[in-house]
Amino acid sequence: MRLEVQTLGRWLLPVAFLVGVALALPSINSGLWADDYVILGILSGSDGMLAGYPSRLDVFNFFDGDHERTQRLLDLGVLPWWTDPHIKMGFWRPVAALSHWVDTVAWRDSPGLMHLQNVLWFGLLIAVTAHAYQRFMGLVPAAIATLFYVLGAAHAGAVSWISARNQLLGAILGTAALVLHDRWRRDGWRAGVFVAPACLGLALLSAENAVGAIAYLFAHAVCLEHSWRRRLTAMTPYAMVAVAWQLIYVRLGYGVFGVGPAYLSPISEPLLFAGALIKNGPTMVLAQWTGFSAEALAELTPRVASVGWFVALLAIATLAVPLVPLFRRRPVSRFWGFGHILAIVPICAAMPQQRYLLFVSLGAMGLLAQLARGLCEREWRWPATVLACALVIVHRVVSPVRFAQSAVVLNDVTLERVSDSLVTEPGQFTIIVDTPSAVTVSFSFFVRAYKGHPIPKHTRVLSSGDGPVSMYRMDARSVLVQWQGRQEHMRFRTRPFALHERIRLAGTDIEITRLTERGWPAEVLFRFDVEAETLNWFRWERGAFIAFRPPAIGETMVVR
User: Fold this and answer.
1) β-strand partners of 482
2) Gap between the Cα atoms of 37 and 449, Å rounded
3) Whether 164 contacts 157, CB under 8 Å
4) What are φ and ψ of residue 255, in 5° steps?
5) In this structure, are residues 525 and 474 in contact, taking their beta carbons and an 8 Å threshold?
6) Which end of the chain has fewer surrounding CB within 10 Å, N or C?
């Protein structure tokens, strides 16, 4: 009987690998989406983008807080005029950047091959993860855990989105570091003291979320080592790597500031991060174990989100029913449980996204495999049995269906349509009167760079939001803009605006002439260096930009 079970385990591992790759393969037809255009636009080397993005191997350094570079991006129009010049969103990911450079050198015009690279990396992640499970749990539980892991719908985003490849690379190298560490600590493989930390370093140079690997290394020391001296010895090399990585990271000017809640810095914004951890931590656990979309949970209204938060806590308490006995009996279960909870912490520094759950899934699926094993061996009483059965159904039936659906993301035709509607020539000065989202205009720069279309010398977005905008033409070079609706664009401002604050950008003087009660600009005066008729004007209508003629001197026009 035992031989038959072992044979089944040997068959399940390659089956899990093939199933995972098969689920991911449809993503090769997905085309490009959002940040894919950003990376490929920077890598295009377009003359219009070189002022803001001079390095083709630093594609994740979007704006690093350097005043001169931020000013160039403001002058160009990639960043709208209301952007705080002190904001920062630069990520040091040279390993991931190198993989995207290969895309542009080898198959620049073939998004399908870029997606295929993601699928191949996902296949390698499955193999490394299966090896990790086998080291800690044996052949059969490892096969079950691997099958649960590859069926996880949360992984579809990392596989199907080209620009999310950094998550796959970080997970591969971080999980490999864990395997090598375990070989060092439990098998006495001396080279592991050097190889495992080096692997962790490469993981951190792929994605910041590879900090999740440190969560498991720490859990390994706490749960599987037998003395504090051994625990200290085990963690010292990784502490040195992590500290060195963070010091160099900051020294080179990378990091985030002022772009929350999209990204938060646990170091420079500790209170905001603590709030995000309390708010998002339970919902990310809920998303991992129940299959609910993390993105959908993040978009709930505040009142519904509060209810969802308590539901998440209730779900966690319910999960404890079968898990606590596991923790008592099996050190490996404690290791998986402690590791996957710790891995939640770093991903709360960003808006909830499914693709960030790769490391959390590692421990969660290890625990679920042990729950499934307990079902087969009839270890649980009926309440725990019902719960374990429900979890198995979710992750064996519902999750793969959602994975298959999520793996196919249609080409972002909206961004391309918006970009193509901005008809312009090199050297032109473009004015956009209104847009639902200034981010759409920012994306258009990268879409045009990737497609080889000309980029305006300067672009000014006058307003952003969903309400009407009033424009009064004061003289040949000046327009007074008043907002009459919601202002979408103020979310990036980290310092309050001041009445009569002036902002100087290339070709434009901007003065805030009236503020709302909440301190947002309600009226702004734009003075151009040339007459308004010589500029290239656009306004938003029905999902694209159309040509616009500014009002005559002394005339007021309402743009809806």
Assistant:
1) 470, 523
2) 9
3) yes
4) 135, -175
5) yes
6) N
